[in-house]
Amino acid sequence: EVQLVESGGGSVQAGGSLRLSCAVSGDTYSSYSLGWFRQAPGKEREGVAAIDSSGRSTVYAGSVKGRFTISRDNAKNTLYLQMNSLKPEDTAMYYCAATRGGSWFRVRPDEYAYWGQGTQVTVSS
After folding, report:
1. CA 124 to CA 37: how far, in whole Å?
2. Residue 93 CB partners (closer than 8 Å, separation 6+)
3. Which in 19, 67, 95, 98 has the greatest CB count within 10 A?
4. Residue-wise pLDDT tens digits, 71-114
5. Cα separation of 120 and 98, whole Å?
6. pLDDT digit string (tens) for 40-66?
7. Could you tell me which of 95, 85, 86, 81 has the C-alpha nearest to residue 21?
8. Do residues 121 and 18 touch, judged by C-beta distance below 8 A?
9. d(Cα 115, Cα 125) in Å, to the nearest integer?
């Protein structure tokens, strides 16, 4: 089993930046692709970005492309999401997740088997 714990959420003004972290532990012998998802109240969970096990391939939702950067440090077993130029519509609970599946790039919740508890991001205007 793999465990994931997010951190780094908080409240910022529009245009500000935050860096989210996700510590991965447990079964790290196998390769996992990792993703970031978010869910606002009353809305479905949506994919934000994902990265393959090597860290060489990434995908982004169109709404965050150019503003967010996903990365991973495999030596530290940590996933990151650098969020710049934040907008009020970015307000949501952010979750990191892991998958061994081949469709990680679709960044769909049903493709990811392991989830963190979430960290809240609030962007005010």
Report:
1. 20
2. 38, 39, 40, 118, 119, 120, 121
3. 98
4. 999 889 999 999 999 999 999 999 999 999 899 999 999 999 99
5. 19
6. 999 999 999 999 999 999 999 999 999
7. 81
8. yes
9. 30
3-state secondary structure 57-123: CEEECCCCCCCEEEEEECCCCEEEEEECCCCHHHCEEEEEEEECCCCHHHCCHHHCCEECCCEEEEE
Residues 6+ away with beta carbon under 8 Å from 96: 4, 6, 20, 22, 34, 35, 36, 37, 79, 81, 115, 116
